[in-house]
Amino acid sequence: MDKLGVPESRPYPVIFFELQGRRWAMGLEWIKEILQARGLGAMPNANQAIAGLLNVRGEVLPVLKGAEILINKAAQDISLDLQAQQSDKEKRVVLIGTHGASLGLMVDSVLKIGSFDIDTAGRGDLLERGGAPMWWKGDFALRMSLDKDGIPVPLLNVARLMEYVKDMNRPGPA
């Protein structure tokens, strides 16, 4: 990775996953494991973006609702019916690890392992595409690429996601 977190390997190995019918990519180097979303423990008074806690071989990890964090609210409203059709037990938890910190990201499905074409990936040109509202939250998209049908696929900025989780845990001003 370069100093901005942009992958340098070409092609960049990723998993493709889906949130509310929309495809995302995440670098393989961040992924520890993929599990079924079963056995989540409740977290009373937790942030609405937290699905619960998951015990993974004695390590208790927070699990985030991927769609809550990564999809814009307007797009979530459009696809609420799709989300309601799938129970949490059918979803997957992608365990992400970096520098001693780990967490789970709940996704609707993991589609495949593949590669992300860094050479053709951009940011500004796809983020500003035709003035249409973005369905993804831009600060979580490190790079963009187009799939075979010309649909934008964001590459998840895992470092930014980890920062977001740390910020969630900081107390606000009194």
Q: Can you tell me about this structure?
A:
28% of the residues are buried. The mean pLDDT is 78. The chain is built from five helices and ten strands; from the N terminus they run βββββαααβββαββα. It has a five-stranded mixed sheet. A three-stranded antiparallel sheet has the order 2-1-8, with no helix packed on it. A two-stranded antiparallel ribbon has the order 9-10. By secondary structure, it is of the alpha+beta class. The termini are far apart. Helices cover 18% and strands 39% of the residues.
In brief:
The protein is α+β, with helices and mostly antiparallel strands and 174 residues long. It has a single domain (12-168), classed as CheA-289, Domain 4 (OB fold (Dihydrolipoamide Acetyltransferase, E2P), Beta Barrel). The chain is 18% helix and 39% strand.
List the defining traits of the structure above:
174 residues, alpha+beta, OB fold (Dihydrolipoamide Acetyltransferase, E2P), three-stranded antiparallel sheet
How many strands appear in the DSSP assignment? 10
Strand content: 35-45%
The coarse silhouette is: globular
Helix content: 10-25%
Tell me which CATH architecture applies here.
Answer: Beta Barrel
Say which CATH homologous superfamily is assigned: CheA-289, Domain 4
Using only CA atoms, what is the Rg? 16 Å
Distance between the termini: 38 Å
CATH class: Mainly Beta
Q: Which series of helices and strands comes N to C?
A: EEEEEHHHEEEHEEH
What class do helices, strands and sheet pairing give? alpha+beta
CATH fold descriptor: OB fold (Dihydrolipoamide Acetyltransferase, E2P)
**Average of per-residue pLDDT values:** 78
Main sheet characteristics = 5 strands, mixed
Low-confidence segments, ≥5 residues, pLDDT <50?
none
Count of individual domains: 1
Number of helical segments?
5
